[in-house]
Every structure is written in structure tokens, then in C-alpha cells.
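TatD-related deoxyribonuclease (Methanothermococcus okinawensis), 267 aa
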Amino acid sequence: MIDSHIHSDTRPYEDFENMAMYLDCAITLAHDPLKPYSMDVIRAHFDRIIYNEIERANKNGLKLFVCLGIHPRMIPPDVNYNMLREYLKRGIKYNKKNINKNEKYIVGVGEIGLEKCTREEIEVFEEQLIIAQELNLPAVVHTPRRNKKETTKTILEVINSLGLHKDTEKHMIIEHCTKETVPMIYDTNMNMGLTVQPSKLTPMDAVKIVKEYGGERFLLNSDSSSAPSNILGVPKTVLKMKINGVDSNIIKMISHNNAKNIFRLDV
Ligand SMILES: [Zn+2]
């Protein structure tokens, strides 16, 4: 099983051991843990993920991969994209160098997206989508709790307006989907993240969506963060799916294979 979206830097040491008992790996994403006074805060956040988190998780047996990006709630006044590009390029270089050891850490750009749909947010989102395409990396796109339907619509319009390659869209994940937003994304080439978390989907909500739409292009995650979370959201949902008669191939797809293929993981 793969938890395709967590924020490991918000979780205590002990959580990793519990996750490691069920998961083959997890993907931790940059988010908004601090007030973004300047790009230096973003740099410190990226460094913490790369230099602390991977090791902290590994020590407890949890394999961790990383996505880096500027979250819509973390845009500093001096935003620039060179630093993000440098971190991503360095990660890609490391991945290539260690390809024989099956060792990589950077697997995507994220999480990016829109929260309030301001002009600034849209510009930062567009720039990062272009970087994801340029570096051939998957992009993980946040959708907010408030105005989810309208904002998801705007997100899809922004993506469309950029005229990205089909392959870029196939490696894009629209996160925190609900039964209201799945129909909007289902007709595109993009993937849909189902987040099982107390304020988002319950395991049964995820079961219902998968029963209706099947497993293709869906990924399960817990978005474990400083908000109320269920670090075992993915294994618990898999259990509910088994109990409720979801086909084992579909379960395998949404809890492992889709994430493995999109993020090109060797797990
Ligand atoms: Zn998140």
C-alpha cells in the first residue's frame, strides 16, 4: 500500500512506525507550516523535508518520497521559481545517479494549486505547472475545502489554458476530490486523489466513489498533517473496500499501482 499524500514534518516520530506496519511507502509534500515571510522560509521548509524527514521516517522503517512546491497558502512576497527549480533539478540528478540502487527522493511538484483563486495564486500555480512539464515531473494539485466546486472548475480552466502536453496531464493529480468534483475531472486525462481524513472523505465515501467509477486514475491518501488526521486512512479504507465487496484488482490499483505508475516508484 502507498499513502500518496502526507505531511510527515507535522507528525511525531512514533507515527512512522505505525504507518510502516501497513505501507510500502508514503509521499510527503511541501505545504504551509509557517508564515511565508520570504523565500528563505520556503528554503528552510524544503531543507527540513529533504534533510530531516526522509531519515526520520527511514529510521522507523517507512520509505518516504518527496514532492516540493509552493502551496497556495505559502506564497512569499518575494516569490521566485529559480530556487524550486534548483531543488527539483538536484533531486532528479540524485535519482539518476542512484538509479541502480533503486534510490530516489524527488518524485513530483507539490502540493501546488489554488485556495482563494487570487490573481497571485493563479500565476504561481501556472508557473509551477510549467516547471512540472519542463522537468517531466508529476504535479499534485490542492483543491480547497471552501468553494471546492468553483475552485476545481477554475483549476481545470487554468490547466486547459496552458495547453500542456497530454503526458503532463496524465501525470497530474487533482487532490481532495469529492463526489461533487469527481464528475468534472473524470472526463479529462488527469488523476483524482481521494483523501480519507476526518474533515474530508470517510472511508465509506471513498468506497462509494470507487464502486461508482471503478479504480482507474484514483489514488488513496490520508493527507496526514497538523489537522485532525487518520494516519492509517489508507489501510482502513482498503479494509472497508474488502468488506464491501470491491474487486481486489481495483483495490490494488487505487491503493498501490496508480501511485506507483504516476510517480514512477520502485516499490
Ligand atoms: Zn496536503
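The chain has one domain: 2-262. The chain has a mean pLDDT of 96. ok done for today
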